[in-house]
From TrEMBL:
<dbReference type="Pfam" id="PF13407">
    <property type="entry name" value="Peripla_BP_4"/>
</dbReference>
<keyword id="KW-0732">Signal</keyword>
<feature type="domain" description="Periplasmic binding protein">
    <location>
        <begin position="40"/>
        <end position="263"/>
    </location>
</feature>
<protein>
    <submittedName>
        <fullName>ABC transporter substrate-binding protein</fullName>
    </submittedName>
</protein>
<comment type="similarity">
    <text>Belongs to the bacterial solute-binding protein 2 family.</text>
</comment>
<dbReference type="InterPro" id="IPR025997">
    <property type="entry name" value="SBP_2_dom"/>
</dbReference>
Length: 312
């Protein structure tokens, strides 16, 4: 105990900036890379003291963590909200305490936007659109013409920005092609285990799946296993076009090998960007309400340009 309070004193003496980070969980490779990025950025060498909490997929744990950051009077709160709804009360508490809140990756849905300072992440709707646009181009190339295109979708965590945006963007493009039939959209929770389970069910229910849109790489890995096992059981080779999201290194290897057709990038390395925002606030510089990260689509054609430098 004494040792601990001595540590706290040193921290205060050094005038480190205290940042409380509420991470939503560790469901995916994307999330692990995001956590590493945060921990590397907000370290003592860079002038920060990090309080980090992993909410293990529970909103109530995130709310608890944020309340504890408020009572410890941290300088900044950074958090990645698991779903968009239900944050008003706790954000109001942070605002009343005068602590700036920076949303990381996923967004919140609140009537009063002054409840948070800014948001740093990806344009998920644009990612969904890119998936649809890639598919349209690809189908034109293989002369699918007016035949029905049977699509199944593995969605991420229900009510999360990533799931809502990627679905909306893809639907936007799909609605322009009357022959695209979305057979089913199911929740795979952004995990490999659930992705496999759900894909196995989809393969049992639908004989003629042409396209799988899987809203993250981890679910895609599970789905690929399910497809392989179904082939073993039935002996039927299924030629399913696979579109994934995140573009982690392991997935890019599969793009290179031709197992995944297209992977829409989503960058988890948000530490530096968030640090820049904090420095702007520290220096009373103007802060925008949203900072978007630039992202690409990878296919066999361009995957080599990125694969060797991919650290996640
Ligand atoms: O795509 C997925 C993760 O919110 C962008 O969450 C993030 C998503 C990411 O679990 O892999």
């Amino acid at each position: 105990k004494e040792e601990e309070s001595k540590n706290e004193d040193t921290i205060l003496n050094q005038e480190l900036t205290v940042v409380g980070v509420s991470q939503l969980g560790s469901e995916s490779m994307w999330r692990s890379a995001n956590t590493v990025s945060i921990k590397e950025t907000f370290c003592k060498e860079n002038g920060y003291f990090l309080l980090f909490d992993n909410a293990r997929q529970k909103q109530e744990n995130q709310i608890k963590a944020i309340r504890s950051f408020i009572s410890q009077r941290v300088d900044y709160i950074v958090f990645s909200p698991i779903t968009e709804e239900g944050w008003e009360t706790v954000l109001q508490e942070a605002k009343d305490a005068g602590i700036p809140v920076i949303l990381m990756d996923r967004n919140v849905k609140v009537a009063d936007e002054s409840l948070y300072t800014t948001w740093v992440g990806s344009d998920f709707t644009e990612e969904g659109r890119k998936a649809g646009e890639w598919l349209a181009e690809h189908l034109a190339g293989i002369k699918f013409n007016d035949e029905d295109v049977n699509i199944v979708v593995l969605q991420g965590t229900k009510g999360s920005s990533a799931m809502l945006g990627r679905s909306a963007g893809f639907h936007e493009v799909a609605s322009q092609y009357p022959n695209w039939k979305i057979l089913e959209e199911v929740n795979g929770d952004f995990t490999t285990v659930k992705g496999k389970e759900e894909m196995a069910q989809l393969l049992k229910k639908h004989e003629n799946i042409d396209v799988l849109v899987s809203q993250n790489d981890d679910m895609t890995f599970g789905a690929l296993e399910a497809i392989r096992e179904a082939e073993k059981e039935t002996g039927v080779k299924r030629d399913i076009i696979i579109i994934s999201f995140d573009a982690t290194r392991t997935a890019l290897e599969k793009v290179k090998a031709g197992t995944i057709n297209a992977d829409v990038e989503c960058n988890p390395l948000l530490g530096d960007e968030i640090e820049e925002v904090i420095q702007r606030i520290e220096n009373d510089a103007p802060v925008e309400k949203a900072y978007y990260i630039e992202e690409k689509v990878f296919t066999q054609k361009n995957v080599m340009s990125v694969i060797k430098d991919r650290i996640y």
